[in-house]
Every structure is written in C-alpha cells, then in structure tokens.
Amino acid sequence: REAYRRGRHLQLQRVRERLALSMRTALVEEVSAPTEAELQAFFNAREDAYSLPESVSWSHVFFVRRGPGDLEDSTELLAELRRGGEDFRAMGDPFPAGRYLERTTRARVANDFGESFADALFAVADDGWYGPLTSSHGTHYVRLEERIPKSVPGLAAVRRYVELDWRTERSRSIFERKLQRIRDGYVIRVAGR
C-alpha cells in the first residue's frame, strides 16, 4: 500500500505492464459457439479470405544465364520444342525444383522466380511452348500443363478456420466495447496543456 501511495506503480514499467495485462485478462470473455446462420453469414461476407488463388502446373526447360549470346539460339530451340522432336526433359540445365512444377500460385512463382517472370507465366496461353522467359535463376522455356482457376471452397471445407476467425473477431469486439466503456469513464488531461 505504501508503494501504491508513493506512486511506484506509475514509475515501474514492469508493474505497469502487469497491471495492464491483469486488466486485459479481466476484460476477456469466453465466446460461445456461433449459430449456423452466424457462421454462414460471416463466411459469406469474407469469402475472398478463404478462396484458393489461381494456380498453374507447368513444365520448363531451364538454362543458367551464360551471357549475351544465349538468345541467338532461342528461336531454333523454341521451334524444336513446339515440334516435339527431342524430349524436353533432356534439354537445358538441371533445375533444383525439377522440370515440372505443380499447382504454383502467382505469389509463389513471384517469390521463387521474380515478379516479371510470374506476370509472363500467368499470361501464357495453354497451347504450347513459350519463351524465353527470364527469371532470377536464368532463362526458361515454359509450357502450361494445367490452369486451375481461383475457387472458393464451401463452408464445410473451411469450417474450423471460419469458426476460429469468427470467435477471434467476436472476442476482439467484446474486448473493445468493454475497454471503450472504461475509457468513457475517464477524462484525460495532458499536463502543461
């Protein structure tokens, strides 16, 4: 009590943090399970948050960047790939992730290969070989094997994530409302103003 009377609780950072934590804990309330209608409405309002982005599965022939003369053979190589003569898996240089990449999103491609490569890859039509496309790794000749459009799974497929998000948002809303009631009970004055 003497420490409190002397204002020590206002001077010691650790004490202030514990008091704040104690108040936060006191304001938290257990949130009951949502009704089916509440959950469906929450999901419908945030469908994009649970959607699966467009992705592509693609094959490529990769060449490590060697120098300015690399592009001289590009039209010949592209013609060979389009004819389907030589097995493309025997062409080019080895690539650590392999010659076939499955269901890669634009964000993943941009992260692994660079923004401009991702833009070019996702603009490619689904009808054969294209290139050369330059990435942060080197030069690629690509063929789209499959384009998987953006999709929104049904509530049943993502139910536990939606319910967790609903509870988190509901809990935060209750906390903020209680905190605002406490704030409304005080007038804050800044010394010297």
Short description:
The protein has helices at residues 2-5, 8-11, 13-27, 36-45, 74-83, 106-113, 115-123, 155-184; strands at 55-64, 100-105, 129-134, 138-148. The chain is α+β, with helices and mostly antiparallel strands and 193 residues long.
Could you please describe the fold and organization of this structure?
The protein has 193 residues and is α+β, with helices and mostly antiparallel strands. Helix content is 47%, strand content 17%. It starts with a helix and ends in a 9-residue tail after the last helix. The model has no long low-confidence stretch (mean pLDDT 87).
Tally the beta strands: 4
Gross morphology is elongated
| Class per helix and strand makeup | alpha+beta
- Rg, nearest Å: 29 Å
Uncertain ranges: none
End-to-end distance: 31 Å
User: Which strand-content bin applies to the residues?
Assistant: 15-25%
Q: How many helices in DSSP terms? A: 8
- Report the order of strands and helices: HHHHEHEHHEEH
Strand adjacency order, main sheet? 2-1-4-3
